[in-house]
């Protein structure tokens, strides 16, 4: 078989796997809910609204964290005693962004615990 045929088979296999996985997932979920309805049980657990932190607030916290990382890198560059590598600069920025994401998750956690 040539390369194009193999790629076509792989792409078709990928999409068919995704399709059938989603199909059987939704089919099983529907059967489960229908069984609960037939048993007369309450379905409110499936339709509760989840209180979530605003996506803009998360992005804002991430931007503040990256800004703090850039500020630290700027201070290190301005007052450097030894040469600072580019890897260290990037790692400080990514570390501050990661810390900001952890802070955002802790801010979101009390809102989820109320439900």
Give the class from helix and strand content and strand pairing. mainly alpha
Low-confidence stretches: none
| β-sheet strand percentage | under 5%
* H/E element sequence: HHH
**What coarse outline follows from CA principal-axis ratios?**
flat
For the terminal residues, how far apart are their CA atoms?
57 Å
Tally of separate helices: 3
Mean pLDDT: 82
- Total beta-strand segments: 0
* Helix share bin: over 70%
**Could you describe the largest sheet, including whether it forms a barrel?**
none
Rg over alpha carbons? 25 Å
Tell me briefly what this model is.
The chain is mainly alpha-helical and 115 residues long. It is 77% helix and 0% strand. It is flat and about 70 Å long.
Please explain how this structure is put together.
The protein is an all-alpha fold. It contains three helices and no strands. It has helices at residues 3-39, 55-78, 86-113. Helix 2 runs antiparallel to helix 3. The termini are far apart. The model has no long low-confidence stretch (mean pLDDT 82).
Features:
115 residues, mainly alpha, 3 helices, 0% strand, flat
How would the blueprint of this fold be written?
Elements: H1 3-39, H2 55-78, H3 86-113
Helix pairs in contact: 2-3
């Amino acid at each position: 078989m040539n390369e194009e045929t193999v790629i076509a088979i792989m792409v078709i296999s990928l999409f068919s796997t995704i399709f059938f996985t989603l199909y059987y997932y939704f089919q099983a979920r529907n059967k489960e809910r229908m069984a609960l309805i037939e048993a007369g049980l309450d379905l409110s657990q499936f339709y509760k609204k989840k209180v979530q932190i605003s996506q803009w607030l998360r992005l804002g916290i991430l931007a503040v964290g990256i800004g703090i990382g850039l500020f630290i890198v700027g201070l290190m560059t301005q007052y450097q005693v030894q040469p600072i590598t580019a890897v260290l600069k990037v790692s400080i920025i990514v570390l501050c962004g990661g810390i900001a994401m952890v802070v955002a998750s802790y801010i979101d956690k009390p809102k989820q615990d109320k439900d």
